[in-house]
Amino acid sequence: MAADMFSKALEAQMLQTAKIVEEQLDAEIQKLDRVDDDELEILKQRRLEALKKAQQQKQVIIL
Q1: What Rg, from alpha-carbon coordinates, does the chain have?
Q2: Residue 35: which residues within 8 A CB-CB, separation 6 or more?
Q3: In sequence order, what are the residues at sequence separation of 6 or more whose Cβ sits closer than 8 angstroms to the Cβ of residue 2?
């Protein structure tokens, strides 16, 4: 009896948590859907610069 109540409470909590996570993911997807080509290009450039900087730092460490 107590195990059933615990199980149902746990199930309800897990469903609530799953709904919250799903809402957060939906919001993130909508945010990404609104990104235009210019913003994508800026993100690419930032990522490329970060990769170049990381590679330069690796070179300094190796030398």
Answers
A1: 23
A2: 43
A3: none
CB proximity list for 43: less than 8 A, separation 6 or greater: 35
Place of tokens 């690796």: 58
Give Cα separations from 16 to 20, 35, 40, 56 (angstroms).
6, 29, 34, 46
Residue type, 10: L
Q: Over the stretch 23-54, which tens digit does the pLDDT of each residue have?
A: 999 999 998 888 888 888 999 999 999 999 99
15: its two tokens: 């469903």
Is pLDDT of 62 > 90? no
**Cα within 13 Å of Cα(24), Cβ side:** 6
- 5: its two tokens: 């109540």
